[in-house]
């Protein structure tokens, strides 16, 4: 019988010091969680930076956050992905600023031109994408493309008109200050495009296919107009690589 006898398993006894340590760690984390979920860290302010066209309120709306939400429970990656789905937003960076603020740094996808359509006016951005629609001309500081009217285009659509696309490509390559100095680009005659710069100054640009080769000319004329040294009547830029200025008498 002695050989068949099996010793009973010994019970492991957790030392009181170790048990106290475990309880302390659990209690400590519970306190942290309770503090993180407390009213101290509820969202009270949204700070928007980098926006030019979109009002702060619109950027906040696009983020989908609501005042009173807990900062720790906001899914930052999800918010950035949601904002990037809007065609007016190229990208957004978001960070928590404790105890009660969310900071949104937005990079906008700017409109490049306004375009007449069958029901009003369209904001056209890079690649010819329609970014917004208006019944009347808005105060957006970009030129209007005249001499052409499009139809059946809505926000999110892409302009397929080849002449308009060439103008958009031209504007996209200009520096932003030069782009916003233009008031109108008339393409009624694609072989004799007229660009109007605020001042007002008329630029005779010639064939629409050569617009992309006249970026430096456009920016140079803009700098001269900005300096205000000459009162220009018009600029003849029909020939690549050079231009002549007709001064007002």
Work out the count of structural domains.
Answer: 2
Biggest sheet features: 9 strands, mixed
Distance between the termini: 129 Å
Q: At the third CATH level, what is the topology name of the largest domain?
A: Rossmann fold
Question: What spatial order of strands do you see in the largest sheet?
Answer: 6-5-4-7-8-9-10-11-12
- Given as residue ranges, the uncertain stretches (5+ residues, pLDDT < 50) are none
> H/E element string?
HEHHEEEEEEHHEEEHEE
Question: Which architecture of the largest domain would the CATH scheme give at its second level?
Answer: 3-Layer(aba) Sandwich
Q: Provide the helix percentage.
A: 25-40%
Would you tell me the structural class of the helices and strands?
alpha/beta
Please state roughly what percent of the residues sit in beta strands, choosing from under 5%, 5-15%, 15-25%, 25-35%, 35-45% or over 45%: 25-35%
Q: What overall geometry do the principal axes of the alpha carbons give?
A: elongated
Radius of gyration: 31 Å
**Mean pLDDT, nearest integer?**
88
Number of strands: 12
What is the CATH level 1 assignment of the largest domain?
Answer: Alpha Beta
Number of helices: 6
Features:
Rossmann fold; alpha/beta; 249 residues; Ubiquitin-like (UB roll); nine-stranded mixed sheet
